[in-house]
Amino acid sequence: MAAASDSAAAWRVYMLRCADGTLYTGITTDVMRRVAEHNGEGGPGARYTRSRRPVQLVYVETAADRAAASRREAEIKQLDRARKLALCAA
Question: Which residues contact 33 (CB under 8 A, 6 or more apart)?
Answer without folding.
Answer: 42
